[in-house]
């Protein structure tokens, strides 16, 4: 299977609950790039790190009008501009994130601690130049929804055998405990793979606690998948 899909594909729906839904635009790709749409406190739909797909607008319309499209990782520009332009809204980029706005062919809104009127608080997951990695997380305490674009995931290349959630292979030696601890999420949405809609707080805590201990299993699985 390819790392990333391309062309036209029928998306696979994931992570549905009353106020949101996720999808994987290319279900057969190894990276399992996941995107999410969540109804905000303002009633509009906030779309996180989206990969476009045929008939996606029909899925979004089930939840309301799109209020904004969010880029949570400097490498996750994905199809944000195309979807924002189609819906006549802006792409939202954290005000501390550099080198992203110039590559987005759509109106951009900068935001700080709060993501518009969505009810989500934004926080820094990682802001580093070596290796380049700028990542924002999002949490809405009113319903326990947490979005982490890259540092943790559920796609197979993130996880050691037996793990529900895994820390990104590059972050396992120094897992982001300080940045991701203390939020106690009820649901965890990630940028690669299906989210965790039950037991999310425990799954996240375990992923951070076991990141180093499970490095041999995680890296072994990654190598096997690369050569298979």
Automatic annotation (TrEMBL):
InterPro entries: RibonucZ/Hydroxyglut_hydro
Protein name in UniProt: MBL fold metallo-hydrolase
Organism field: Halopelagius fulvigenes
